[in-house]
Amino acid sequence: MAIRVAVVGAGGRMGSEVVRLVEAQTDMKVAAAVEAAAVVQSGAVVAGRRLTAELEPALTECDVAVDFSVAEAVERNAVIAVRAGRPLVCGVTGLSETAMSGLRRAAQSIPVVYAANFSVGVAALVRLAETAARLLGRGFDAEVVEVHHRGKKDAPSGTARLLAEIVMQARDGGTVRQGRDGVVGPKPEGEVGISAVRTGDVVGEHLVIFGGTGERIELSHRAQSRAAFAAGVVKAIRFAHGRSPGWFGMADVLAAEGGPGR
């Protein structure tokens, strides 16, 4: 029987891409496309499907909820998923500590798969950055640069934050600096800088730079379309369906099928 999926934020850039790709699968289908009331009232449709503003009743007819709405709605959506007893796949970034705590609380009752980036290639980039940071140590400076379209609301991206955190952990600590301006002095040992660029319609680019004396290593990932992210979401839906409660990431999803996981 096909997995019935509710896509929250179905009218957005990522949500609409997820709707289209889920509908293209043979083992799952979109049972509900959820959006804010104002979007629903405008008469908008996604992939020929009418939208609904009511998540709770929609989940009674679904097996898995996928959330690509907005940061302000994530905690409420997680509570609704818990009440319905449905697994939750969430890719909303720019979350407050309160919202993230709400997601983690939900994971005590339902399976929650959270990722700032569902791309398989980005999962590989994270592993490569971790390995490089461990091998090179603090003798190499580390910087993360991310580029996204002008409409992205949060900066730096969740993926850039994750990459910086992974590099720090691999080097047994350090600090993160988001952007630089003015007379900042020499770069302290162990500092990982993050720079965010917003321009045009760039889907997403991430670059990790390790700079040593007389040499530099660069690891990069460029998303050419959101289909790369949606493909990872489809994997996460299959992973979450029928799973016991817990907190999971893309590393867990890919490890379960033999990819670049933990």
From TrEMBL:
Keywords: Amino-acid biosynthesis, Cytoplasm, Diaminopimelate biosynthesis, Lysine biosynthesis, NAD, NADP, Oxidoreductase. Coiled coil: none annotated. Its EC number is 1.17.1.8. Residues 121-254 form the Dihydrodipicolinate reductase C-terminal domain. It holds the Pfam family DapB_N. It is an enzyme of class 1 (oxidoreductase). NCBIfam families: dapB. This is 4-hydroxy-tetrahydrodipicolinate reductase. It comes from candidate division WOR-3 bacterium. The lineage of its organism: Bacteria, Bacteria division WOR-3.
